[in-house]
Amino acid sequence: MLGIFAGAAFADDDYYIREEAGRRNIHLISIEQARSIASQRLHSNNVRFKEIELDNEADDYPNGTNFRPVYQIECYANGQEYDIDIDAVTGEVLKFKRDD
Questions:
Q1: Calpha distance 30→81 (Å, rounded)
Q2: Distance from C-alpha of 93 to C-alpha of 97, rounded to nearest angstrom
Q3: Would you say residue 54 has pLDDT above 80?
């Protein structure tokens, strides 16, 4: 099920990932921080966020554990659509792809 948060969609998995991060004593960046990082990377203050999901991407981005929280962002800027993955712990941009 998807919900809406500040104009972006998020998955129910968000709650479970935040719970697991708490159990592991891991601090996650906020959705607002992830949006800001994406906007900075796009060099734009006019970004329209289509979807933001917090997901466990340990398989796609191995870090030596079975837990790697990542914000997966779909957005529009400068007339283009982008897919951006941001590490939800460090804020590192893991993927930056312009859709053709």
A1: 22
A2: 11
A3: yes
